């Protein structure tokens, strides 16, 4: 209710009391259908072409004799095998190509159970979840999943079929459960772009090998698009997948503009939790937004080749709403960097993304965004939901972020295929490096921080033993991203006494016994006589009569005026985070976030501004009391009683104010 629209004379005190009555009324939370399945605990991959009824099967009890092909070092009829992330750390996905026919299986077991280096007869097995004729019309693609993996365990696996044989046994190690982990990030490998000069296949192998040697048991690596130069070129895919690390370290990939125009990308990469409704491809193009959880991090991947920004926003909103509380950090990846310092910065598709992404990232509290495309390295300042550098952010070695602030990294070429010219003077540039040298970023994850360290990999001279040329990685940037720590109240202080921006409670009793703050609205007769204003005159964050224990209940009575973090927009990219409405306005007459008279003397709690029972289009409940559930049954009695009492008090004050005005006029 906007009090400035009421005809005078209506005192601020009576208006505030009427507002409290409205806020106290129960507002149901709108439930939205969930976005598919495949969260932690679920082993279903959501590839568009995958049949959900097909699930990996384990048959540890069957005794299978090894075929002659399986006993060999590995069948040449099985190629392009690649190990990938699953929906969560208990799963790993696989893809491979076979000559004779589509279909087959993956077999796996802990390394401790190997017999003379071979898988035991009772190894777990899972049949292919998807297979078919490859785009070259010569081979067949195959997808399968390993499930129910234990943490911190070394596994062995092989893939294939009885007709074509099986690959040699490969090994990988799962990460710790909830411990400190790390992953690797690479910009465009774009194998084939150099035409052999430079040899980008060798450059990609060198960078990936150097990164694997620099990191300490990375849980996976992340390639940010343009894996190949020509979308349908199977030879380029074979070169991209040639390094041994592609079979021993799980990987995740993002679709680049050089990958999108063929189904070869979807055939080579068995991605988890692919949405069939967001960022999809076409009949002959690849696509699909997808997500997974690894290292306690929620990773969101969007197909930035798709211009449907509303669909991308809806995907991010829905996944964060469903799975955000299962992760300690959130990372968004897509190919087209919106904050690079090279020549693509002014492209129309990039500008469209630059307008669309920041508000979505802010309202979902995305911590880190990683992209490629512009073949240059850049780190931004902390950026806000309007796409502007956060005041005070200095792009130093340590960045302390508030909710809604995001750090953006642009990664350069990881193979040395090509580089773009540096464009100086862009206001988001925190640190840019443009040495035209391949690079990678190592991200270390803990409960307290994300630390991103970036290294260049110069071409080295051949070692004395005749092995592959390898130069030591050279560090060029290092930043540690932490969350701003909330100030904890002293044991004897009221939990909400130090709310933001002078959100004081007039007449509040902030005693150590945690008693509810006494509302100045209606509690102080003298204030009522004087017509004292109990909210900030500028529409600030004053909260008169708010519950003294509001912070402990998760409701911040000092919420910023824009309601950041609680209201999300209706899934439309580019709208401000404070524009979402659930049909109940709780702001004061000047648009501030004050919650006047939200606590009656009976101790009834009402929702503070910015934490009302809102829900955005994704079904994200921002309730300030019972979480996702609306108040029902007996739970309605207290708020209804409070609302009725507040209405009665407001009416009495309204009559009194009119009588006083009449007396003054006479």
Description of the molecule:
The chain has 11 helices and 23 strands. Helix 1 packs antiparallel against helix 11 and helix 7 (309-323) packs parallel to helix 8. It has 666 residues and is of the alpha+beta class. The protein is globular. The relative contact order is 0.13. The strands form 4 sheets. Strands 12-11-10-21-22-23-18 form a 7-stranded mixed β-sheet, covered by helices on one side. Strands 13-14-15-16-19-17-20 form a 7-stranded mixed β-sheet, covered by helices on one side. Strands 3, 4, 7, 8 and 9 form a 5-stranded antiparallel β-sheet that branches.
Quick structural summary:
By secondary structure, this protein is an alpha+beta fold. Helices cover 18% and strands 19% of the residues. It is built from 11 helices and 23 strands.
List the keywords:
18% helix, alpha+beta, 666 residues, 11 helices, seven-stranded mixed β-sheet, disordered N terminus
Would you spell out the secondary-structure blueprint of this structure?
Blueprint: H1 12-24, H2 68-71, E1 78-85, E2 92-98, E3 105-110, E4 124-127, E5 130-133, E6 140-146, E7 154-161, E8 165-166, E9 170-173, E10 181-186, H3 200-214, E11 221-223, H4 234-240, H5 245-248, E12 251-253, H6 264-268, E13 290-294, E14 297-301, H7 309-323, E15 329-336, H8 348-363, E16 368-372, E17 377-380, E18 398-401, E19 407-410, E20 429-433, E21 439-445, E22 449-456, E23 474-483, H9 520-523, H10 525-530, H11 637-665
Parallel strand pairs: 10-11, 11-12, 14-15, 15-16, 16-19, 18-23
Antiparallel strand pairs: 1-2, 2-6, 3-4, 3-7, 5-6, 7-8, 7-9, 10-21, 13-14, 17-19, 17-20, 21-22, 22-23
Helix pairs in contact: 1-11, 7-8
């Amino acid at each position: 209710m906007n009090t400035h629209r009421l005809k005078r004379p209506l005192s601020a005190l009576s208006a505030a009391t009427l507002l409290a009555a409205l806020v106290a009324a129960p507002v149901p939370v709108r439930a939205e259908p969930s976005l598919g399945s495949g969260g932690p605990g679920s082993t279903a991959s959501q590839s568009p072409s995958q049949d959900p009824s097909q699930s990996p099967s384990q048959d540890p009890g069957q005794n299978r004799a090894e075929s002659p092909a399986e006993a060999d070092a590995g069948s040449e009829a099985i190629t392009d095998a690649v190990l990938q992330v699953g929906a969560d750390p208990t799963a790993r996905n696989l893809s491979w190509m076979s000559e004779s026919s589509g279909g087959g299986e993956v077999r796996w077991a802990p390394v401790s159970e190997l017999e003379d280096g071979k898988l035991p007869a009772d190894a777990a097995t899972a049949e292919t979840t998807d297979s078919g004729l490859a785009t070259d019309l010569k081979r067949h693609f195959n997808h399968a999943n390993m499930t129910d993996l234990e943490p911190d365990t070394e596994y062995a696996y092989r893939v294939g079929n009885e007709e074509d044989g099986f690959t040699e046994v490969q090994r990988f190690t799962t990460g710790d459960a909830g411990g400190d982990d790390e992953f690797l990030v690479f910009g465009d490998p774009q194998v084939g772009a150099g035409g052999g000069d430079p040899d980008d296949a060798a450059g990609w192998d060198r960078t990936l090998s150097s990164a694997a040697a620099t990191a300490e048991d990375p849980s996976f690596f992340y390639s940010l698009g343009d894996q190949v130069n020509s979308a349908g070129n199977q030879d380029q895919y074979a070169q991209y997948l040639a390094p041994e690390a592609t079979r021993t370290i799980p990987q995740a990939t993002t679709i680049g503009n050089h990958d999108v125009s063929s189904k070869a990308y979807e055939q080579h990469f068995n991605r988890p939790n692919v949405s069939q409704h967001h960022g999809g491809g076409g009949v002959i193009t690849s696509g699909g937004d997808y997500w997974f959880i690894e290292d306690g991090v929620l990773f969101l991947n969007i197909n930035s080749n798709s211009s449907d920004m509303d669909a991308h926003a809806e995907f991010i909103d829905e996944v964060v709403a469903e799975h955000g509380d299962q992760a300690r950090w959130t990372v968004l990846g897509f190919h087209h960097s919106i904050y690079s310092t090279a020549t693509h910065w002014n492209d129309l598709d990039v500008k469209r993304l630059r307008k669309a992404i920041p508000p979505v990232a802010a309202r979902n509290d995305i911590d880190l965004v990683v992209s490629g495309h512009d073949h240059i390295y850049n780190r931004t300042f902390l950026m806000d939901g309007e796409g502007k550098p956060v005041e005070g952010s200095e792009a130093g070695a340590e960045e302390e972020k508030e909710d809604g602030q995001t750090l953006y990294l642009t990664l350069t070429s990881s193979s040395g295929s090509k580089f773009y010219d540096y464009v100086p003077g862009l206001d988001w540039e925190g640190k840019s490096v443009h040495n035209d040298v391949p690079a990678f970023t190592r991200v270390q994850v803990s409960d307290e921080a994300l630390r991103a360290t970036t290294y260049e990999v110069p071409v080295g001279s051949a070692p004395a033993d005749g092995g592959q040329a390898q130069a030591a990685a050279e560090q060029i940037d290092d930043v540690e991203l932490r969350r701003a720590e909330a100030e904890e109240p002293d044991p004897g202080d009221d939990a909400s006494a130090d709310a933001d921006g002078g959100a004081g409670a007039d007449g509040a009793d902030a005693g150590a016994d945690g008693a509810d703050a006494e509302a100045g609205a209606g509690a102080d007769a003298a204030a009522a006589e004087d017509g004292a204003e109990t909210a900030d005159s500028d529409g600030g964050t004053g909260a008169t009569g708010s519950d003294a224990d509001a912070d402990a209940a998760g409701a911040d009575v000092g919420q910023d005026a824009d309601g950041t973090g609680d209201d999300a927009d209706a899934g439309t990219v580019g709208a401000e985070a404070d524009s979402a409405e659930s049909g109940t306005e709780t702001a004061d007459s000047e648009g501030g976030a004050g919650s006047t008279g939200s606590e009656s003397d009976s101790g009834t709690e009402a929702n503070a501004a910015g934490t009302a029972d809102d829900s955005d289009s994704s079904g994200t409940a921002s309730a300030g009391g019972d979480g996702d559930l609306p108040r029902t049954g007996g739970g309605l009695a207290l708020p209804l009683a409070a609302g009725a009492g507040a209405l009665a008090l407001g009416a009495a004050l309204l009559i009194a104010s009119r009588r006083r005005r009449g007396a003054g006029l006479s």
